[in-house]
Design brief:
Helix content: 10-25%
Distance between the termini: 17 Å
Order of helices and strands: HEE
């Protein structure tokens, strides 16, 4: 369920018309008793200095 939300947000916000070569990287690792999934993309991102409003849930 979490992976679905990450993928949906990536396509909705990271890949716009200004990104002619969109890339999404998904990595999965099995560490002893943990399963780690990492997502990264080459989208525009956001300005960390700008205040972002969210739903705080």
């Amino acid at each position: 369920m979490i992976a679905n939300e990450v993928l949906t947000n990536t396509y909705k916000y990271a890949f716009g018309p200004s990104n002619s070569t969109p890339q999404l990287k998904i990595e999965m690792e099995n560490e002893t008793e943990e399963f780690i999934i990492s997502f990264s993309d080459n989208g525009a991102g956001f300005d960390p200095k700008k205040k972002h409003e969210g739903n705080r849930t």
